[in-house]
Amino acid sequence: MRHHIVAEQLPDGVTLKEWHMVRGEEQQSMCGRDVAEGAAELPDDAWGTDSAHPFCHTCGALYLREVP
Ligand SMILES: [Zn+2]
Predict the structure, then answer these.
(1) Residue extents of the structural domains in the chain
(2) Which residues have their alpha-adjacent CB atom under 5 A from ion ligand 1?
């Protein structure tokens, strides 16, 4: 099961709030946020790079525990 990264936007729908990690095809991020329809996505190997910044601290911690 692949992880991927999704964007959470501010309510204006344009400004990036932060990136979250999502497990496989789940509809919620690992920290429990609903994934917005049509949210921008990145592959999980973008984790820790400038493209996935700022990144949700909760998702980051959980991801590190799951991925060797
Ligand atoms: Zn998160």
Answers:
(1) 3-66
(2) 20, 29, 31, 56, 58-59
